[in-house]
Amino acid sequence: MSTPPLVERTVVFLSDGTGITAETLGHAVLAQFDGARFRQVRIPFIDSEVKAIAARQKSTTLPPTMESRRWCSARWLIHESTRW
Length: 84
Known about the structure:
The protein is of the alpha/beta class and 84 residues long.
């Protein structure tokens, strides 16, 4: 019996700083999914509403890695105006 191919999912890490904390926490979560592959995208320095809108647009227009699969985002945003 052949082994099914690994599913690759896109994970987006959003942060108002460098994104290192969000990415580190995200890695801890992703480690729980044994056998899964993840394409990781980090969008740091979202410290204004304008940047938050741009980051949201960028993250929601990323192509899915597999047909009909949605991406996942881990947001680490302190400023109230940058949250959605």
